[in-house]
Amino acid sequence: MTDWRERKGPIGVLTGAGISTDSGIPDFRGPRGTWTEDPVAELLSTYQNYVADPQLRARAWLARRDNPAWQATPNPAHQALVRLGAAGRQVGIITQNIDRLHQRAGSDSVVEIHGNMFEVVCVDCEFTDSMAATLERVAAGEPDPACPACGGILKADTIMFGQQLNSAAIRAAVEIAETAEVFLAVGSSLQVEPAASMCAVAVDAGADLVIVNAEPTPYDVYAAEIVRDPIGVALPRLVSEIVGD
Question: Choosing from 57, 64, 102, 114, which is the catalytic residue?
Answer without folding.
Answer: 114
